[in-house]
Amino acid sequence: MRLLIVEDDASLGDALTTGLRQLGHVVDWFRDGQQANAALTSAPYDAVVLDLGLPGTDGMVWLERWRRREQTVPVLILTARDGVEQRIAGLDAGADDYLVKPITIDELAARLRAMVRRSAGRAQSVWQHGALEYDPATKLVRWKGETVELTALEMTLLEALLKHPQRVLSKTHLQQVIYDWGGGDPSSNSLEVHVHHLRRKIDPTIVRTVRGVGYALGSGEASA
Fold first, then answer.
1. Domain co-membership, 210 together with 153
2. Which residues form the domain of 154?
3. pLDDT value, residue 44
4. How far apart are the first and last CA of the chain?
5. How far is CA 207 from the centre of its chain?
């Protein structure tokens, strides 16, 4: 999973980041809501771990802002605020889970996995984009009703694009997706190679190049 941690305490933030990375997760850690908000709007995350007692703007305010703009990423509140009314307020504001510090890394990771599973269960079982169909459970890809054989890395790249069909994903982000999967040096031209393979195997229109920025899903309509 790619996780966003918002925690102002240096020792706790470092411990969470180190522990979750050791479990195989990709983790970005920020110490204030402003930086976390910028990251959340520029890259896709599977889940957010949010402290409430942040400097400047309270974590609850950030959560409410994200939900108002229909940011659906699962959010787990991790805080020292242990009152029942505070827990209720956090969940009512849009949190998917609420934990009180201290907590072990193993329990946090288990909670995050469960939270992401619930979120995936609410999502559409088969993703459709024009003539393209993708079943994330079976990893089956179809174009105009015909099965398309993709490598695991090509499928990972396609899934990253399908998760955000209206967003342009930066080259840096997609290179990191490839690198995290184990697809080589993110500074190489491997991204361009895999985009070329997707276009060749599916359709030239399936991935759109946004010059100077990155890539986005194309129209999903077959080329002539």
1. yes
2. 127-217
3. 79
4. 38
5. 19
Q: Going by DSSP bridges, is the β-strand pair 2-6/26-30 parallel, antiparallel, or unpaired?
A: parallel
Are residues 40 and 131 both part of a single domain? no
Q: Enter the tokens of residue 166.
A: 């209206």
- CATH number at 201 reads 1.10.10.10
The answer to whether residue 15 is domain-embedded is yes
Tokens of 198: 């997707």
**Looking at the domain assignment, is residue 222 inside a domain?**
no
3-state secondary structure string across 5-44? EECCCHHHHHHHHHHHHHCCCEEEEECCHHHHHHHHHHCC
* Per-residue pLDDT tens digits for 86-105: 999 999 999 999 999 999 99
Percent of the chain past pLDDT 70, that is, above it, reads: 92
